[in-house]
Amino acid sequence: MVGMLLVSGEVLWAQQTQAASAAPNDSLAAAVHELQEQVKELREAVTEVRGEAAQYRAETAELRRELQVTREQLAGAKQPAAPSPANATPAPTSGLEERVAALEESTQLLNGKVDDQYQSKVESASKYRVRLSGIVLLNAFSNRGKTDNLDFPAWADPPTPLDPNGAFGATLRQSELGLEAFGPRVAGARTSGNLQLDFSGGFPSTFNGANFGIARLRIASMRLDWDHTSIVAGQDSLFLSPNSPTSFATLAIPSLAYAGNLWGWIPQVRVEHRFDLSPDQNITVQGGILDNVVGEMPYTTFDRQPQAGERSGQPAYGARVAWTRNVFGLPLTLGSAGYYSRQDWGFNRHVDGWAGMADWQAPLFSRLTLSGEFYRGRAAGGLGGAIGRSVLFNGDPTVATTQLQPLDSIGGWSQLKFQATSKLELNGAYGIDSPFAQDVRTFSSKQNYFGSLVQNRVVLGNFVYRPRSNLLFSSEYRHLRTNAIDAGYWTADQVSLSMGILF
Questions:
Q1: Which domain holds residue 304?
Q2: pTM of the shown model
């Protein structure tokens, strides 16, 4: 009996010992497996770099060999030759000299490419390439009249005794910073990501805080690109409204925003497909869903609360079709788009927002291009329509008896661009946005947004000079005219000078 107990005790002790050691062995095996995968990826990367380096060395050696042979032939041709008849023609050497010069130039170019492989690049946590880009932009401006925003105005405000009749200032908060990442192929698609920031997100509450712009997210998107199809997910520009007037005075918002130019950096998922009709002609189809924005200000500065579009429980929907062909070596593009947004303003107040758009880019001559957009919509304030408003209220929106009026609106813009030289371009543009006056007049007293505005017009003219590819100088004149019901209109002007360095 005692022997049986001893044997049973030894068996139980052995089982417990095996169970206790099983967990460390499993974790050790997982760590070893992960390390093996990392070593495998590192070996593949090293093999790829070695292969490229070997290819560059082989090409360099071959060019040097050809250069040496050519030099020997040239030296032999320059040696004194045996006397020849008086009417004999000497052998030409200009062809050999040109070939030597071309080979020397090719060798220098190839050596430069090899040296680029050893330069310091933007470091990435992965083995994939990352590209840094951006612009350092200085804007100096002089305003006459009162505007909604001193450095990049969108409309004119009514003058008051406390406000000066003019102002002068400068800013760099429209400078931008961008990162592009190029990842692996997934299901045959090239993967990439794009991140863009500027410093126009407001002002810190500190001494001279107007000069210390707060960083603001503009674009953060990911792409899958096949030969003719793309999938884009993230916060991106409004694909329904792809054009925008040329202006370096208002990079923080697109030029002519709230004056007929629909825009927005909106979270979205879209699919794009291109149908090639001929080598120089194609049709592009785009469609997707977007965050259902309506143009409201955030309810709080910390916690995010659902707004009218998001309270509907569904996204906004958009689609665009465009036809493109080459004319004068430039793309001629005609497009049309549609947008729908279901909105819930509380207390069973529902609105169907929509917009129809058309856009064009037409080369008139090799140096002259006409571009622009047109829209007609309803409750499209989230896209900048109706001067940024979707609805008007006749009282407190949080009260159940308060009524609302969706705003119908119409607007658009057009620009004429003249490419005087490869370094100098001249631009002139006009934009207008007009909510329907009958909608604005529905209520005698209005609340929400700036309710009395019924029209906003902007005229601009500028030149952009690029002495180098990464350096630009620009000057622009803008005239704003904003109409209000029973209050006439207000005007303002801005003259700006801009200097930018792109990197």
A1: 140-165+239-502
A2: 0.76
